[in-house]
Amino acid sequence: MSDVPETHFTRSADGTSLAYLVSGSGPLDLVLHCGFPGPLELLWDDPGVRVARRLGTFSRTVWFQGRGLGPSGGDAGDRRREVHAGDLVAVLDAVGAERPALAAWNTSGLIVIPFSVSHRERVSSLVLMDTWAHYVREDFGRRAHGATNDACNDPHRRRPRSASPCPRKSY
């Protein structure tokens, strides 16, 4: 792990400490919004180091951890899009990335996709991997936070696959 870049920190508008690493020296600015909960340095263990080296051949890659993840401060459970958008702007400004390509996988898409719509002038392109823009089930947030007061949240309730008391709703 001798080639692990130094972890840098910047502050969001509300003073939250945000962690990021910069690797590579290619002509493209690529910002990877990592949902990885551990220290970013662990991404430089094999096979992560191979990915970083390959990305570094064509980009200056910024590995950003959102609030509450790894060494970044704040609450990872804060779902307000404007807060996460402000965090991303703070990191872009800290590294001098005017119009980077943004990459997201898994839950990071919930931040990067809306950001790319509301801050079009700050994004050149998107790279999306196994992600989504929003949840489809309106009860998902309650289920994720342990609510068990209705039929949708009862893990012991047996029901046929075709019958669901939780109708799907798209936003």
Q: For the record, give the distance between the C-alpha atoms at the N and C termini, rounded to a whole number.
A: 44 Å
Helix content: 10-25%
Q: What structural class is derived from the secondary structure elements?
A: alpha/beta
Number of domains: 2
Poorly predicted parts:
147-160, 162-171
Order of adjacent strands in the largest pleated sheet? 1-2-4-3-5-6
CATH topology of the largest domain: Rossmann fold
| The named CATH superfamily of the largest domain | Alpha/Beta hydrolase fold, catalytic domain
* Helix and strand sequence: EEEHEHEHEH
Task: Determine Rg (CA atoms, Å).
Answer: 18 Å
Describe the structure in your own words.
The chain has 171 residues and is an alpha/beta fold. The chain has two domains: 8-134, Rossmann fold (3-Layer(aba) Sandwich), CATH 3.40.50; 137-171, no CATH class. It is built from four helices and six strands; from the N terminus they run E-E-E-H-E-H-E-H-E-H. It has helices at 48-56, 81-95, 109-118, 140-144; strands spanning 8-11, 17-23, 28-34, 59-65, 101-106, 125-131. The protein has a six-stranded mixed β-sheet. Helix 1 links the parallel strand 3 (28-34) and strand 4 (59-65). Helix 2 packs across helix 3 (109-118). 29% of the residues are buried. Mean pLDDT is 81; it is low at 147-160 and 162-171.
